[in-house]
Amino acid sequence: MLRSKYISEVKAGEKVKLAGHVYEIRDLGKLVFVILRDVSGLIQLVANKKDCGDEVFKKVKNLTKEDFVVVEGEAVANEKAPYRKVEVLIKKLEVIAESDSPQPIDVSGKIESTLDKRLDWRFIDMKNPDVLAIFIFQSKLVGFMEEFLRRNRFVRIFTSRITNAATEGGADYFPIMYFNKEAFLAQSPQLYKESVLVSGIDRVYDVGMVYRAEPHHTTRHLCEYVSFDVEMVSESMRDVLEIQEGVLRYAFEKLNKDEWVKEMLEKRNIQLPFPKKIPEVSFEEANEILKGAGAEVEEHDLTPEGERKLCEYFTKEHDSEFVLVHSFPFAKKPFYLMRYKDRPEITHSFDLLYRGLEITSGGQREHRYEERVKNIRDKGMAVEQFDHLRFFKYGMPPHGGFGLGIERLTAQMLKLKNVREASLTPRDPDRLVP
Ligand code: ATP
Ligand code: MG
After folding, report:
1. Within 13 A of 17's CA, how many CA atoms are on the CB side?
2. pTM check: above 0.85
3. 172 lines ligand 1 (CB under 6 A)
C-alpha cells in the first residue's frame, strides 16, 4: 500500500507512511516545512537536515508544488502546527510523480481565477480542498438518498440514454446519428421508468446523466446533468409526495449527523435545516402570493423571479426553505401527467422549490391508455413516435414519480452561485472539455 493511513487519521506518537500532493513549501534553509494534502486533509511535514540525513533533505529541498510523494516519518504533537496540532518529522521521502510548474491556476484559493478558467482546468481546480469537498458532499448526498429508497423497497434500474423519440417534448433535445438512423439522447428516463411498472415491479429509481439542449446561458442549466429519478405505483400524488419528502428528510438528517459534513458546513457557514413539513400551495395560490409581493406572474408557469420570491415568502412566513407548488396547467407540463377529471386544463403535478430554485418536478402520471393517447394528441404530437405506449395496454397500474437534478440540489445546499460548480465536467453550449 502507498500509505499506512490517511492524513486525517494521523495521531501524535506513531510512525506513519503518507501519500499525497505537496501543497505548500516553506524553505528556511536548515529547516523545510511542507504541507502535504490527501483526500482527507492537510498536514505539516518537517524536514530537519540533522534528523533526516543529507540525501532525504536534498529531495525535500528539490520538491515542487503538486509533486505526488510518499513520506515516512514520525508524527509528533506541536501546538503550533497549522493542522490538528500534529506534524510529521520526515525520515524518508520518495517523489512518485513530478508536477510541472507553475500550476495553470492557483489551487490554494489565494489568487482567484474565473469560474471559466477553473472549469477549463477542472481536475487541477479540484486540488483545492474546498472544491473537492463539493464532490465528496455530493457523493454522500446521493448515497443517503439511495439508502432511503432501498430501505423502502425501491429497486435501482438502468435505463437507456439512446432513444427513438424526444421524451419531454419541446425543442431541447440532442439528435444523434445511430448508424444510419436519427436517434435522440434521453432528456429523462421518464418513459422507461414508467413502462417498467407494467411488469409488476412497483418501485424503481434511476440515477444517471440526461441531456438537454439548453441554448441559453444561465446559472441553473446544464446540457448534461445527473437526474435522480423515482417512479412508483401510487394511488394518488400524495403517495409520491410522501416518498419525495422522505428521501430529502432522510438525506438532510444523515448529512447533518455526518462528522465530515458538519465540519465542512461550519467552515462555509451553512446550515441545512429541514422543515417539519414542507408547505404546499397550488400554482394558483402561488400566483396570488406573488402578485401580493409585487412580482410579475406568467399564466402557465413560474418564472425564475417567481421561484425566488416564493421561496423568500415561505422562508419568512413559514420558516421553510422548501415550498411545494402543485396543480400546474397542462399547457406547460409534459403530456404524461394526469389531468384533473373536472378541470382538464390542470394536471396532478408539482415542482419542489428550494432556496429560490426548482429542484424537482413530478406528479401522478396518466396510466390509462386512451387518456394518455388523448394527452399526446392534445399536445399536437404524433402518437406513432411513442413506442412506449404499447406497454400501457397490458395492465398498467396507476403510478407517479419525480425527477430531481443532483447538481441543482448540491448547488442550493452549498449555496454555490452556479450549477456548473456542482458538475464534475459541465456541458453548456460553449463547453465540451474537459
Ligand atoms: P426549468 O424550468 O428550471 O428549466 P424543467 O422544468 O425544464 O426545469 P424538468 O424537466 O422538470 O426541468 O426536470 C426535472 C428536474 O431536473 C428539475 O427540477 C431540475 O432539478 C433538473 N433540471 C432540469 N433541467 C436541467 C438543466 N438543464 N440543468 C440542470 N438541471 C436540470
Ligand atoms: Mg420542471
Report:
1. 7
2. yes
3. no
